[in-house]
Write a structure and sequence with these properties.
Elements: E1 37-41, E2 44-49, H1 57-65, E3 68-72, E4 75-80, H2 84-91, E5 104-110, E6 116-126, E7 129-134, H3 140-146, E8 153-155, E9 161-165, H4 169-176, E10 190-195, E11 198-203, E12 212-216, H5 226-237, E13 243-244, H6 247-256, H7 291-296, E14 303-308, E15 318-321, E16 324-335, E17 340-347, E18 360-364, E19 370-376
Parallel strand pairs: 3-13
Antiparallel strand pairs: 1-2, 3-9, 4-7, 4-8, 5-6, 6-7, 9-12, 10-11, 11-12, 14-17, 14-19, 15-16, 15-18, 16-17, 18-19
Amino acid sequence: MRTNRHYYLESYDEISLAPYRISRSPFAHRYTTDQTIHAVYCNRLYAVKSSPDESPIEGYWKLRRGVMLYDVPEKPLEIVGPDAARLLERVLTCRIADLGIGRCRYGLACNDDGTILMDGVVMRLGPDRFWYVIANGEFLSWLRAHAIGLDVGINDPHSRVLQIQGPMSLDVLDAAIGGGLPADFKYFRAGFFEVCGQTLWVSRTGWTGEVGIEIYCNSGPVPTDHDALWDGLFACGEPFGMEFSTASSMGIRRIESGILDNGTDIEPGLTPYGAGLGQFVRLDKDDFIGKAALSDADRIQLLFGLICSTAMPEPQMGVSYADQHVGHVTIGTWSPTLDVGIGYVRFDEPLTGDDWLGKTVALHDYEGTQHAATVDSLPFVDKEKQLPRVAWRGSGTGAGRC
């Protein structure tokens, strides 16, 4: 029998917070009320709940079946100049030189010891112009320190990002650009579009595991008119039922999709191999920070998925095996699609003589009760990761312009 079925990721203690040194979204006044609960990410406020009583389930199903808009706090950094690619080759584990204009690539940055410092998506906007969209944490000073002696500029373009996610997200984009969204606008492609009359960079990426796009403000030739963009997008999204959502519904979906959060799921001290991200390390490219350590590192994975039918995994819950403590949960939720508790488990050590995948372990809830749980591969839903790759074939609605 289930003993814990709370869909929201975690509870929040409410505190008053002065906005000193914290950036507020230029869109915040369009949805914030005195009931909105915020968190801080990349020194940016973002809405995690519209009110203390908000249930994310309605938004979750609208995301999965239709389309939702999110005002997210991820932070793009601009790297521009003749040595821009050279700098990124130096600090990232992926290849950069062969990244085409209008293409995106997941990129990890490591410390000298091979542990993960930052993760994000790198995009090539022009021959010598890149944006690296970072997760939570300081990275601007790291880039600048490693750019000494190079002909490159590094800056914060103060771009706020809107994610439009869900099966109808491309229909909304097609309407917002006046129709004619090209068929080759595939997953992890990007380009400049006239979005509601403003030239903006748009990528086919997101944090939900569904079809989705991200629209980057202040990416075009002139500063973004944020209010005009907001109104225009909702006018275009209205025929498709697009609504705004806080991060609550996105949070459930990102766990189902196996998307990791740097600094929480990707804990300090994890290498890409330990985090299950070894496929994003290119040891065959020229030297990069952490390459020597990663060349000698073991390839043993320590971060996995966890499924429990009787309880919801929550942060810092203990995990045991053969009556021995072996790890802890980093994040968890109840999956509405699978109707089970899911989360990520970080093991302390490899399993001697075997692999953790598929093993039955004990999840210890906050009251000390043990629940049988199974170690699973990621993602939990859409194992082959085909949902975000769905090809665009036109809306078929005749809506092409808003």
